[in-house]
Specification:
CATH class of the largest domain: Alpha Beta
Order of helices and strands: HEEHEEEHEEHEEEHEHHEHEEEEH
Largest sheet: 6 strands, antiparallel, barrel
CATH architecture of the largest domain: 3-Layer(aba) Sandwich
Number of strands: 16
Strand order of the largest sheet: 1-2-5-4-3-6
Strand content: 25-35%
Helix content: 10-25%
Number of domains: 2
Number of helices: 9
Length: 295
C-alpha cells in the first residue's frame, strides 16, 4: 500500500461495538455470525475482512472474512470454523452480546467489465468473500455479468445443500448440488468434495473448475476471470489453472495476523512486482493479490 493509499484507508476502517444479531451452528464446528455493525457494513467490499475481539479475556483479535453486508439494515455476516481458543470463545457469544469489531480492512477484489464471466472458487472457510462478490454482482444488475460460483469442502458445507435448478453447460454430469442462497439470487453454483456428499463433484473444486473451463470456446474463455479464496494449496492450484487457460486470476490470501492494520508486518508475504520481489502485508496490502504475483 502506498502512503497515499494508507492515508485514505484511515477514513474507511471503523472501530465499532457490534451486537450479535444471530449465531447459527453447522456441522464440523462451523458458525455463521451476524453482527449489527452499520459503519462497517456501509464500507465493506468483497474481499475485505474484520478484526474482532472474541472474548474480553482474550486480548488478541481474530481476522474473519465478510460473507455478506446489508447497508440498509446495518449488519455484516461472517462464517468461521472453530480452531483454537479464540474462535471457541466466539462460538459461545449469544444474541445481544457485544463484540469489538475493527473493519472493514484490506484491499477487495477488482471487477473488470471486459471479463464478465466471473469464475468464483471458494474452499472451506474461504467461501465467504466469493458469496459477497456474487452478492455485489447481483446488486449491480448488469446483464453482462455471468458469475459461476464453485465451492469445495471436505467437511459438510455450512448450509443445507440442494439440487440446483439452474443449468450450467460444461459442468460434469451428476454435479448438481448448490448453495440455496445463491440459487435464490439467480447465481449458479456447484459443490465439490472428496467426502462423497450427494450431488457434489467427486474431487477438488479446482478440478471441477478445470472441467468447466475446458468446455468453453476460445471466445467464451477470453471473457473469464478467476477469483479464489481458500487454503494455500487450493490457491496454488487456482493459479496453475489460470496459467493453463491463459486467464487473469485474483486470490485472497489467508495468513495469521496480530494487529490486522499493517503495523506489525507479521502477515507479510513475498510478492513479485515490476521492481522485483517485495514483502507485502496481507492485511492492508491484500488480502487480495494478483495470483501470478504471489504464486
Amino acid at each position: 500500500m502506498t502512503p497515499a493509499a494508507a492515508r485514505a484507508a484511515r477514513g474507511t476502517i471503523f472501530l465499532e461495538r457490534a451486537r450479535v444479531i444471530s449465531q447459527q451452528a453447522w456441522e464440523a464446528r462451523q458458525f455463521v455470525l451476524r453482527l449489527a455493525a452499520p459503519r462497517c457494513a456501509a464500507a465493506a467490499a468483497p474481499g475485505s475482512f474484520v478484526h474482532l475481539t472474541c472474548d474480553a479475556a482474550i486480548p488478541m483479535r481474530r481476522p474473519l472474512s465478510i460473507m455478506r453486508a446489508d447497508v440498509r439494515a446495518g449488519w455484516i455476516e461472517l462464517l468461521y470454523k472453530v480452531v483454537g481458543t479464540g474462535l471457541a470463545a466466539l462460538a459461545l457469544r449469544k444474541v445481544g452480546d457485544e463484540l469489538s469489531v475493527l473493519g472493514p480492512v484490506g484491499q477487495p477484489f477488482s471487477l473488470h467489465a471486459a471479463r464478465p464471466r466471473t469464475l468464483l472458487i471458494g474452499g472451506g472457510v474461504g467461501i465467504p468473500p466469493l458469496v459477497f462478490l456474487a452478492a455485489r454482482l447481483c446488486e449491480q444488475r448488469a446483464p453482462a455479468w455471468q458469475p459461476l460460483v464453485l465451492m469445495g469442502s471436505e467437511v459438510p458445507f455450512p448450509f443445507a445443500a440442494r439440487s440446483s435448478r439452474l443449468s450450467v453447460p460444461g459442468i460434469p454430469a451428476g454435479s448438481s448440488a448448490c448453495m440455496p442462497l445463491l440459487e435464490e439470487w439467480g447465481v449458479p453454483s456447484r459443490l465439490a468434495s472428496g467426502a462423497g456428499f450427494p450431488g457434489c463433484f467427486p474431487g477438488f473444486v479446482t478440478e471441477l473448475a478445470d472441467a468447466w473451463l475446458a468446455s468453453l470456446s476460445a471466445i467464451e474463455l477470453a471473457q473469464v476471470e478467476i477469483f479464489a479464496c481458500g487454503p494455500t494449496p487450493m490457491l496454488q492450484a487456482s493459479a496453475s489453472l489460470a496459467r493453463r487457460h491463459g486467464l487473469p486470476c485474483q486470490v485472497s490470501l489467508e495468513e495469521f495476523m496480530a494487529c490486522g492494520v499493517g503495523g506489525c508486518a507479521g502477515c507479510a508475504v513475498s510478492v513479485r512486482t515490476n521492481e522485483g520481489p517485495a514483502m507485502k502485508r496481507v492485511c492492508v496490502d491484500g488480502p487480495v493479490f494478483d495470483a501470478y504475483a504471489v504464486f
